[in-house]
Design goal:
The chain is of the alpha/beta class. The protein contains 11 helices and 7 strands.
Length: 269
């Protein structure tokens, strides 16, 4: 059962004000929905972020978590390559000289959330190998190749508690990982209930007890979303007719949500 706090709209407005000054690729509607998930989903446990870049989503999550007493946000990122250039090979990433760590930490300081974030300067696999805590919200925005996104999902999804949510960024952008994991591991599984897109963010609620009742809605969404997979499966840049066809199929995927007051209704089944 989703309960929306009376002050949620105000808190998300304030959190977005801080978030909007941080460089990054998370759009406003995505950030606001992420804040809603952090505040309202009923599961107990940690908020885990995989892929922080310069801290845009981290600030949103931390501001909301601080206000509602949800504990530290766990932020996992090696900060050793440009997150706009997703790579499958860890050694290649480690060879790149650029780091976003300083910018990330500065974003946390400016926003006043340093104490609200538990920072792991590491690859997600290095953290998941010994992870043993329950998770209420798993936000995946790291390596966007299929292998990378699947490793992130496989490493942490088993710790998500019933009622919790898994969300992936850039599922409706031209990357193989987020869309395949969303369709193949979440939409096609009766372990999940309500699901959808907010701009390029894909999300689904873990509902192992009654996920079956959402099957028809998930399958309908999967039919549309799965049409994108053949275009992005090799992570090659889309050009010409392929790019036009990809955009056509993407335009048919529903990705808008109602306003704050109606957000809870999408979880009702």
């Amino acid at each position: 059962m989703i309960t929306i706090p009376a002050d949620l709209a105000k808190i998300i407005d304030e959190a977005w004000e801080a978030t909007s000054t941080v460089p990054g690729y998370l759009l406003e509607n995505e950030a606001r929905f992420l804040g809603f998930l952090a505040a309202c989903i009923p599961a107990k446990g940690r908020i885990v972020e995989i892929g922080s870049f310069k801290g845009r989503s981290t600030v949103m999550l931390a501001k909301v978590a601080a206000h509602y007493g949800l504990g530290q946000v766990v932020a996992i990122d090696p900060h050793n390559f440009n997150l706009s250039e997703k790579t499958e090979v860890a050694s290649e990433a480690l060879a790149r000289p650029a780091s976003t760590k300083v910018d990330f930490l500065n974003s946390l300081r400016v926003a006043g959330v340093m104490e609200q974030v538990g920072f792991h300067h590491a690859l997600s696999k290095e953290v998941s190998s010994s992870w043993n805590e329950p998770i209420r919200l798993l936000w995946i925005d790291g390596d966007h190749t299929y292998r990378g996104a699947k490793d992130d999902f496989d490493g942490f999804a088993p710790h998500v508690k019933p009622g919790g949510v898994i969300a992936l960024h850039d599922a409706l952008n031209a990357f193989s990982g987020p869309i395949r994991v969303f369709v193949e591991e979440m939409l096609r599984s009766n372990q999940f209930g309500a699901a959808g897109f907010v701009h390029s963010m894909a999300w689904a609620q873990f509902r192992p007890g009654d996920g079956e009742k959402f099957r028809e809605k998930r399958e309908r969404l999967a039919r549309r979303a799965s049409r994108l997979i053949p275009f992005v499966k090799d992570d090659a840049e889309l050009r010409g007719l392929r790019k036009k066809l990809y955009k056509l199929h993407r335009s048919r995927v529903p990705r808008k949500i109602p306003g704050v007051a109606d957000w809870a209704t999408i979880f009702d089944g």
